[in-house]
Design brief:
single chain, 5 helices, 6 strands, about 30% helix, globular
Length: about 120
C-alpha cells in the first residue's frame, strides 16, 4: 500500500528540516529541491498547489514510489497570497486513491514562542 506523511507546523517549527531529512531516503518521493538548497519557498513544495486546490490532486501523483512526503507550514504563502492549507482535504483526497495518510504536526516549545514574541 502506498503511504503519504504530511508534515506541518508553524513557520520556523522545523517542518522544513524534517522534510529535508526524510526526503533523503531513496524510497521516498519528497521535497527533493530541499536536498540541494538550504531554503526553498513554500510555494515550490511539490504539493503546494494542492494545499490551496485539493481537487487538483490526482492518483498519478502517487505512481512512481510507495512512500511520499509532503510538507506545509501553517499558514503558508502560495503565489504571494497567505493561506491556511487544506490539509484534511488533501489527506482525504489521497485516501480516496488508496493511499494511507499520516499527519505529523511539529510544534515549538512554549518558551521559544514567548521569547520570539519579545
Amino acid at each position: 500500500m502506498k503511504k503519504l506523511i504530511i508534515i506541518t507546523g508553524p513557520q520556523g517549527s522545523g517542518n522544513h528540516l524534517f522534510s529535508r531529512l526524510l526526503s533523503l531516503h531513496p524510497y521516498v518521493s519528497g521535497w527533493e529541491e530541499l536536498l540541494d538548497n538550504y531554503w526553498v519557498p513554500s510555494d515550490q513544495e511539490p504539493f503546494a498547489e494542492y494545499w490551496v486546490n485539493p481537487e487538483k490532486l490526482t492518483a498519478d501523483v502517487f505512481a512512481d514510489k510507495d512512500y511520499y512526503l509532503a510538507n506545509v507550514s501553517c499558514p503558508f504563502f502560495f503565489n504571494g497570497t497567505r493561506y491556511v492549507p487544506k490539509i484534511l482535504e488533501v489527506a482525504e483526497r489521497a485516501k480516496s486513491f488508496g493511499v494511507e495518510v499520516e499527519i505529523a504536526i511539529v510544534v515549538r516549545d512554549q518558551n521559544i514562542n514567548q521569547l520570539q514574541q519579545l
